[in-house]
Amino acid sequence: MSQHGVPLGLLLWRKIRALGVQSVMGVPGDMNLELLDYMKSVDGLRWVGNANELNAAYAADAYCRIKGCPGVLVTTMGVGELSALNGIAGAYTEQVKVIHIVGTTSTTAQRNRLMIHHSLGPFPDHKVYEKISQHVRAAHCWLDNLTTAERDIDRVFHDCHEKSLPVYIFVPMDMVNLLVLPSSTPSFHRAPIVDYADEAAAVATITSMIYESRMPVVIVDALVARHNVIDIARKLVHLLQFPTFSTSMGKSIIHETHPYFHGIYNGQVSRPGVCHSVETESDLVIDLGPILSDSNTGGFTRKIPEGNLISIHPRCVKIGNSTYKHAGLASILGALLREIDTSKLPRPDFPDLPEILPAKDAGSVTITQSWIWRRIGSFLRPGDILIAESGTAQFGLPDAKLPENVTYLTQVYYGSIGYSVPACLGACLARAEQSREGRVILVVGDGSLQLTVQEIGTMIKLDLRNIIIIIINNKGYTIERAIHGPEECKNMSFWNHLKMLEFLGAKNGKTCSRTVRTKKEFEDVVCLPGYTCPDSIQVLEICLDVMDLPWQLEAQIALINAQSEETQI
Ligand SMILES: Cc1ncc(C[n+]2csc(CCOP(=O)(O)OP(=O)(O)O)c2C)c(N)n1
Ligand SMILES: *[C@@H]1O[C@H](CO)[C@@H](O)[C@H](O)[C@H]1NC(C)=O
Ligand SMILES: *[C@@H]1O[C@H](CO)[C@@H](O)[C@H](O)[C@H]1NC(C)=O
Ligand SMILES: *[C@@H]1O[C@H](CO)[C@@H](O)[C@H](O)[C@H]1NC(C)=O
Ligand SMILES: *[C@@H]1O[C@H](CO)[C@@H](O)[C@H](O)[C@H]1NC(C)=O
């Protein structure tokens, strides 16, 4: 075959595999079937086959968050492509590497504007859907030219990696079998834009500010994970030994068991003492990889004096009111790690923060919001993955104190409900490929579950066994009732969660599904062998009071209400 080249479809899969990808999400369709056939010829690449394209996009997103390499999904032009769009937008918002491959009509049909199924109206422009995704991708290409195809693939992969954002590859169905001669050298190279002078100046300023500081603190945020610098950030934080905080989105990047870890900093929606120590007592705040969205900043209530703040972004550094352009997160952290002189580091005498006061309902026999999140934290073990859905779970789980090596996944900024269920699938596949032990624990509200529940069928189909699905059943959208009044969204949920696994095909679904209402019932379940070393998917429905809220959600709503009253005056 090499004499005459390699089919374009096969070349694409070989290159995908070379990125470290082993599972490919998506839904088949006549415009991508031949492309999918070529996947079988690449060792170590498997087709997942999701229930729908939205789920495929969420699963690819979470796959990337766990493995670090891009998540990949394949869809069909229009119908499948557009269903995936919401998931791709989430990946774009939260800076996740996803490669979306779309099988399209043939180049001839496109040229002649034929009314092929999935096209839009009479005399259709077949490339119209491509324009729709331009706001949610860093790059795209059409594989409609054999001369440039390989270079286009490499360019798009490069941008996906460099910018840590989604990209699109459109593959017309008549191109898939055509032969290309793969180049023996990399067909595309673009050096990252780095300004070494600015970078060196930033590092010099940062080190001297650190040496001169009295009470420095570090905040670790989500872009550290998205831009694949978790290891180096951990090393730096360990070297510095300064008091360290996570944001809700950056949770689990820094091990929470270290004595220098002091919890979540979320503006005024932090536990007592945190805000004061970061904003008032500290004279230097080093903020790594920030995402300053509302729910990651306590509804924009962070107030760090500008002169005290060093923000290290993926491609620039901001110190006070100056910006150092084209200085990257990875190289800045690396340079700091090399150049810090530990003998000059301040040893801040950081006060112990007060413990959270026992909640008013601490003595409750039934399970409450004030109890469940920390209890889930202590149920976890090193190596587990914890996935939180938007809703009360996402507000409450920051309270969970995670053991070392637990990875926490949640979509805070984009916040599309339903994300967590397919994310659980993607995370589970990625973790298996890393040959690492551990359970995958999904915490999802009964309302959010309704959006993407079918993907549990894919977990069953693939015989994944180390998954524990915790359903927070408070009879619908409690978070919306908290915002808009208790009469909102009533009577929306009459699902029988205990029959879910069975319906979706699990042979032992009946014996692996339980419901609990009291703390005692919860304790009796989580010590069962099915929970300590699961050998099949478990479902645990936890019934909570309809209007019970985590304190963080109450606090954020109170702040937002106060702000809107102020603006109305
Ligand atoms: C795709 C999408 N649709 C609607 C919303 C608005 N929304 C945010 S949270 C939520 C309700 C979540 O309810 P549930 O999963 O039951 O969690 P609870 O707050 O009850 O714990 C809704 C509808 C959203 N964020 N995303
Ligand atoms: C393919 O790309 C090459 C290089 O840019 C160009 O010269 C050629 O005309 C293109 N072929 C087609 C069919 O568009
Ligand atoms: C920038 O910060 C410095 C030092 O904090 C201050 O003296 C200066 O006035 C600031 N400049 C602007 C434009 O805000
Ligand atoms: C965490 O993971 C690291 C790297 O795999 C390992 O060396 C360490 O022992 C783990 N810690 C725990 C508590 O399992
Ligand atoms: C909600 O359900 C309850 C119990 O089934 C019923 O009594 C009530 O009338 C319903 N309310 C609405 C608004 O449908």
Automatic annotation (TrEMBL):
Domain Thiamine pyrophosphate enzyme N-terminal TPP-binding, chain residue ranges per copy: 12-117
Name of this protein: Pyruvate decarboxylase
Matching Gene3D superfamilies: 3.40.50.970, TPP-binding domain
UniProt keyword Cytoplasm present: no
Cofactor note: Binds 1 Mg(2+) per subunit.
Molecular function as annotated in GO: magnesium ion binding; pyruvate decarboxylase activity; thiamine pyrophosphate binding
Record: residues binding Mg(2+): D446, N474, G476
Cofactor(s) this protein requires: Mg(2+); thiamine diphosphate
Signal peptide: 1-18
Family that this chain belongs to: Belongs to the TPP enzyme family.
Entry GO CC: cytosol; nucleus
Ranges for domain Thiamine pyrophosphate enzyme central: 204-339
Residue ranges constituting the Thiamine pyrophosphate enzyme TPP-binding domain according to the UniProt record: 404-524
GO BP annotations listed: aromatic amino acid family catabolic process to alcohol via Ehrlich pathway
InterPro entries attached to this UniProt entry: DHS-like_NAD/FAD-binding_dom (IPR029035), PDC/IPDC-like (IPR012110), THDP-binding (IPR029061), Thiamin_PyroP_enz_cen_dom (IPR012000), Thiamin_PyroP_enz_TPP-bd_dom (IPR012001), TPP_enzyme_TPP-bd (IPR011766), TPP_PDC_IPDC (IPR047214), TPP_PYR_PDC_IPDC-like (IPR047213)
Keyword Zinc-finger: no
UniProt entry keywords in alphabetical sequence: Decarboxylase, Lyase, Magnesium, Metal-binding, Pyruvate, Signal, Thiamine pyrophosphate
